[in-house]
Structures are given as C-alpha cells and as structure tokens.
C-alpha cells in the first residue's frame, strides 16, 4: 500500500489510561488533520481507562486504521519513548508509515525513575513490562478486531531499554525490536565470561529472570525475534550513561550498542547494528526510516539479512 492510500483510510486514535482497577469512559472528540505527506486523515480520540498493574498509572495512545479486517489479524507496532518523553510525541513520526502498512500503533507514556540508579531501573521495568503485556492482551477487545500475537517494537533511549527487555520477558509476544540509543542493556547471559563467579541479575543480565517471568531464560526463545540496534556514531560520551554497566558492555552508548549486538549474535539471536553518521543522542529522519524499513521487512516475512550501510 502506498502513502496515497492513507487519505482513504480512517484512523482511530484511542487514549487509554492504565489506572488500576476499573474501565471508565471519559469522553471523545473528533478532528480532521493533515498528515506530513499532506493527506487528510480523520481522527477520533476516546479517553478511557483500563485495569493493569495496581498502582501504575499509564496513558496509552492507540492509533487504529479503520476499518480493520475482522478476519485477518492486524500487525501491532509498539513505540516507547525515552526520559521526559511521551507516547504521542514518539509515535508521531511513525503514524504515516504505520497507517500505510495497516498497523495498529500502541504508544504508552511512562514516568520513569532515576535512569542512573540500577535499583530504580529494576523496579520500574518490573512494573512497566507486565503492564505493557496487559495492554497488548486487551487490544483485540479494544479495537474490535483480531491482532497479531507477536508485535513490532521501537524504542528510543530509555524506551529502547524497555523495548529489548520486553522481548526478553515475553519472547513469544515479539516479532522484531528496533532499539535505538539505549544507555544500558540486559545481556543474554547469566554470568560474566571472564572466569568470575558474579551472577548477572536483572537488569544487567538474565540470571534471575525466572523471578520476574516465572521461567528461566532460554536463548533459543529469542531466536525467532529480530533485533536492529541503532545508535548515533557520535553518541559516545561516558558522562551520559551509568557507570555500573562499564565492565559488562563498555562506557558509552555507541560501544554498548555494539557489545549488545555481539552478545545477541553469540547466542544465535538474529541481530544487526546500524550506526548513524554525524548523529549524537537524538532521533533523526534517517533513524526513523531505518526502523520502519527494518520492521516492515520482518512484518512482510523477509528474514534475510537486512541491508545496512
């Protein structure tokens, strides 16, 4: 489908708030907006609330091409923002292409804790990851049509951490991950490979993953998940990342992206690294295009090596 068809499709945007226990409708609005390509797209916004993890308040914007085929599951793209960001803003550059592909877009807004404190990261992700799964489990009822069980995921910075960790927690729910500019990674290892006896507990590694998911980590469970790890070539300041990961994957984002990609590949997990010239810690149009191309390639069933510059 070309972008020309976007103007002929209705897009429903639903803002869902994860607030704990009840399902509450709180209003709706409609508008006619113009996309980046100059096409008119009808948008309907409803404000509702769904139950999820107690004590976690998470607004989620759903963008739904309409009408969805009730006999063919729709693809789902999850987009995850970084520190200080929000779901609608991170989703905006992807809406045009997602609608053209017929994808439902799920864009939650999280309030992250201190990203430099490993205990805060652990605590946040232990709540955020199950909450995201609850949102995805409820999608068919919410959109009124079947959706693919395995989703596409894009994340930037802190959102890239959530993106790849969601795949580690729930590999059966993920088809592909485009993780861009993460400051830290969870490596697919239970211990360091330097002869030390230190266990790599979450979020460093997977030694105690069973504590969070009920199952021990199995590398083979991720071999059906495709990873694109992206980073700006100039995103290389050690001052911008927490030090406690240095021994494991290096001292800056560019080094860590390369180390994480290599760790995945060593376990037979399909992963590739793309570095973006003259880019620092930022999202660029080139990055968005690369992520969409990769995710669309996986969604279309092409599992051959992705053509990276």
Walk me through the topology.
Layout (H helix, E strand, L loop, with lengths): L9 E11 L3 E11 L5 E12 L6 E9 L9 E5 L6 H15 L2 E5 L9 H20 L1 H5 L7 E6 L1 H12 L4 E7 L29 H4 L12 E7 L13 H4 L3 H14 L4 E6 L8 H15 L10
Parallel strand pairs: 1-3, 5-6, 5-7, 7-8, 8-9, 9-10
Antiparallel strand pairs: 1-4, 2-3, 4-6
Helix pairs in contact: 1-8, 2-4
Characterize the structure shown:
With 309 residues, this protein is an alpha/beta fold. The chain has one domain (63-299): 3-Layer(aba) Sandwich (Rossmann fold), CATH 3.40.50. Helix content is 29%, strand content 26%. It is built from eight helices and ten strands. It has helices at 87-101, 118-137, 139-143, 158-169, 210-213, 246-249, 253-266, 285-299, and strands at residues 10-20, 24-34, 40-51, 58-66, 76-80, 104-108, 151-156, 174-180, 226-232, 271-276. Strands 2-3-1-4-6-5-7-8-9-10 form a ten-stranded mixed sheet, sandwiched between helices. The radius of gyration is 19 Å and the shape is globular.
String of helices and strands: EEEEEHEHHEHEHEHHEH
CA-to-CA gap between the ends?
A: 26 Å
The general outline is globular
| Strands, total number | 10
Regions with little confidence, pLDDT below 50 for 5+ residues: 1-10, 16-33, 39-52, 304-309
What oligomeric arrangement do these chains adopt?
Answer: single chain
Overall CATH class: Alpha Beta
Number of helices: 8
| CATH architecture title | 3-Layer(aba) Sandwich
Write down the domain tally. Answer: 1
User: Which range does the strand content fall in?
Assistant: 25-35%
What CATH calls the topology is: Rossmann fold
Tell me the helix content: 25-40%
- Please state the structural category: alpha/beta
Mean pLDDT, as a whole number?
A: 83
Question: Which strands sit side by side, in order, in the main sheet?
Answer: 2-3-1-4-6-5-7-8-9-10
CATH superfamily: Alpha/Beta hydrolase fold, catalytic domain
């Amino acid at each position: 489908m070309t972008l020309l068809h976007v103007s002929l499709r209705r897009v429903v945007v639903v803002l869902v708030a994860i607030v704990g226990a009840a399902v509450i409708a709180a209003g709706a609005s409609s508008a006619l907006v113009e996309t980046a390509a100059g096409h008119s797209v009808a948008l309907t916004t409803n404000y509702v609330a769904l139950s999820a993890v107690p004590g976690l308040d998470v607004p989620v914007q759903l963008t739904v091409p309409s009408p969805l085929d009730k006999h063919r599951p729709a693809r789902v793209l999850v987009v995850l923002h970084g520190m200080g960001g929000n779901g609608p803003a991170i989703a905006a550059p992807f809406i045009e292409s997602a609608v053209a592909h017929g994808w439902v877009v799920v864009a939650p807004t999280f309030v992250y804790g201190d990203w430099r404190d490993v205990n805060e990261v652990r605590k946040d992700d232990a709540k955020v990851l199950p909450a995201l799964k609850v949102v995805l489990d409820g999608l068919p009822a919410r959109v009124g049509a079947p959706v693919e069980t395995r989703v596409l995921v894009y994340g930037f910075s802190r959102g890239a951490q959530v993106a790849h960790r969601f795949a580690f927690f729930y590999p059966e729910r993920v088809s592909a991950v485009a993780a861009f500019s993460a400051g830290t990674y969870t490596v697919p290892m239970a211990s360091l490979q330097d002869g030390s006896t230190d266990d790599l507990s979450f979020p460093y590694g997977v030694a105690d993953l069973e504590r969070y998911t009920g199952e021990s980590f199995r590398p083979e469970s991720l071999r059906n998940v495709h990873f694109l790890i992206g980073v700006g070539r100039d995103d290389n300041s050690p001052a911008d990342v927490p030090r406690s990961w240095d021994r494991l994957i290096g001292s800056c984002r560019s080094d860590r992206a390369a180390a994480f990609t290599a760790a995945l590949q060593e376990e037979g997990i399909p992963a590739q690294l793309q570095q973006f010239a003259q880019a620092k810690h930022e999202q660029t149009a080139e990055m968005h295009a690369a992520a969409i191309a990769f995710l669309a390639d996986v969604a279309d069933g092409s599992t051959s090596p992705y053509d990276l510059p």
